[in-house]
Amino acid sequence: MARAQRQADAPSAELRARVRRIGRILDRLHPEPPIPLEHGDPFQLLVAVMLSAQTTDKAVNEVTPALFELAPDARSMAAVTEAQILARIRRLGLAPTKAKHLRAAARLLLERHDGRVPAELDALEALPGVGHKTASVVLVQAFGVPAFPVDTHIHRLAARWGLSSGRNVAQTERDLRALFPPSQWGKRHLQMIHFGRRFCPALRHEPTQCPICSTLSSTHARSERGRASPRART
Fold first, then answer.
1. What is the secondary structure of 198-231 as a DSSP string?
2. CA spacing 20 to 30 A to 160: which of 112, 134, 211, 214?
3. Is the pTM of this model over 0.90?
4. Ranges of the chain with pLDDT below 70
5. Would you call 41 a catalytic residue per the annotation?
6. Which domains, ranges and CATH numbers included, belong to the chain?
7. Which member of 27, 57, 100, 151 is catalytic?
């Protein structure tokens, strides 16, 4: 029974071929994708990712220099006030909540991890303001631990390219982890973010001009156009 289930869950030959095709295009267009959030160490990356919720990476990169001048590490972040943090990130969405979480997370890092950012998923998710996606980003980008964080770009592209049902982010992550080997997860995560922003946006997307969507089978393309809607594209 278990063997039959594994065979039933195995990707089809068509899907495996699509994954290889997508991988080749991503490698050609984004051979060495940079980390979008500027940082100097794992703590600063954690802070930047926490700040990026409902905010563009560009906006985060504009406020973090002043924030890191004030508090470059967990010890200094825990020592300043929420008001001091807020003054430097006020232009970002959800700034008051983020300021509160940053200080609380820094204090917990001092209490539990001697001020260092842990390289374990459970320990990261236990920090205030740190969810599964944030923890996964820190794991793979700061420590090289295999993880496939799924943001809105990746969730959209996985459904658009027929790699996942797009039911929810958790399902998309499971599907992508099954389709790509762990050694590729971090790179594919970054490649899909950069590709989505440049070629495959949520709005005003033209499939025939997209280097990947234009290569999909006509059947899949028709299916995708048929179920596309403003809600599904966000």
1. HT--SSS--GGGSTTGGGS-HHHHHHHHHH--TT
2. 134
3. no
4. 1-10, 217-234
5. no
6. 11-33+148-227 (1.10.1670.10), 42-142 (1.10.340.30)
7. 151
Whats the size of the chain, residue-wise?
234
Dist. CA 205–CA 110, nearest whole Å: 46
Closest CA to 26 of 190, 233, 179: 190
Q: In 90-217, which residue ranges form alpha helices assigned H by DSSP?
A: 95-113, 121-125, 132-142, 152-160, 169-179, 182-198
Q: Give the amino acid at 131.
A: G
Q: What is the CA radius of gyration of the chain?
A: 19
The two tokens of residue 224 are 């995708």
Q: Which two tokens stand for residue 167?
A: 């039911």
Q: Which of 73, 98, 133, 187 is catalytic?
A: 133
